[in-house]
Amino acid sequence: ETLGGVTTKVIEKGTTIPAKKSQVFSTAEDNQPAVSIHVLQGEREFAKDNKSLGMFELRDIPAAPRGVPQIEVTFDIDANGILTVSAQDKGTGKSQEIKITGSSGLSDEEIEKMVHDAEAHKAEDETRKALVEVKNQADALIHQTKKSLTDLGDNFDAGEKAGIEAAIAELETLLKDDSATKEQIEEKVKTLTEKSHKLAEAVYAKEQGQQAGGGTEGAKKADDDDVIDAEVE
Predict the structure, then answer these.
(1) Which domains does the chain carry?
(2) DSSP secondary structure string, 25-50?
(3) Largest Cα–Cα distance of the chain, in whole Å?
(4) What gap in Å lies between CA 183 and CA 6, rounded to an integer?
(5) CA angle (133 as vertex; 128, 134 as ends), nearest 5
(6) Sequence-separated contacts (24+) of 8-16 with Cβ below 8 Å
(7) Could you tell me if 83 and 75 are in contact, meaning their C-beta atoms sit under 8 angstroms apart?
(8) Residue 35 burial (C-beta neighbours within 10 Å; 0-12, 13-18, 19+)
(9) Is the predicted pLDDT of residue 180 greater than 70, yes or no?
(10) C-alpha distances in angstroms, 206 versus 56, 163, 202, 203, 213?
(11) How far is CA 8 from each of CA 37, 46, 106, 116, 202, rounded to the nearest angstrom?
(12) Which of 33, 119, 126, 164 sits 20 to 30 Å CA-CA off 212?
């Protein structure tokens, strides 16, 4: 279960056992000290619509900005159908796990019903998931733009800064509105993205101007040093 209650599938239905698969996740908040691992079974896009098999926490994650910690979650099903789910902080090596025996506990009829239920609600689930994803995108954009304003805000006049802050406020207000549509959020995301791009352009323009001012000295240094061309991806 990830941000917004969305189910992230690690081992797909019909996978031959034994099987072992891993995915790397991260934190949703700055300085988040723990992550909850919710193990689910089912075909639906949202955790609440699937069967809960168990839950555990990985604690003592070092303080860090959201998205920085790397938490590797591994699902390991042995030949007897025993499921071991582990979570490891790749930075510290700290780990936690849970074992689930008889992980299915479902009859063939119940499994068939779950598959049929997922198909029946596919369109509805995809629409809900798309809305959650655009909300997550908007939240991430707000977080990054606020950070940029804190780090680079002194490079802008009051009017430019006020315009960006107003766009942030409008998007934050919309995200609190449960009736907001995907299209409405996307429009506000577009507005804030355009304003944040101007913020970045202004910073780079200022930096290039400063480099041009010291062009003679920079050119001399280039003559004195070996220059290596490289591509950054």
Answers:
(1) 19-104 (2.60.34.10), 123-211 (1.20.1270.10)
(2) E--SSTT---EEEEEEESS-SBGGGS
(3) 78
(4) 20
(5) 100
(6) 10/73, 10/75, 11/75, 11/77, 13/43, 13/115, 15/77
(7) yes
(8) buried
(9) yes
(10) 49, 20, 6, 5, 11
(11) 11, 9, 21, 19, 39
(12) 164
Residue count of the chain = 233
Burial 88-111 (b: 16+ CB within 10 A, else e): bbeeeeeebeeebeebeeeeeeee
Confidence class of residue 227 from pLDDT cuts 50, 70 and 90? very low
Please write the tens of the pLDDT for every residue from 25-34.
999 999 999 9
**Residue 225: what residue type?**
D
Structure tokens given for 91? 């930075």
DSSP state of 2: B
2-31 per-position pLDDT tens digit: 988 999 999 988 899 999 999 999 999 999
Q: How far apart are CA 42 and CA 57, in angstroms?
A: 21
CA distance 47 to 52: 8
Distance CA 10, CA 159 (A): 47
Distances (CA, A) of 33 to 59, 65, 88: 6, 11, 14
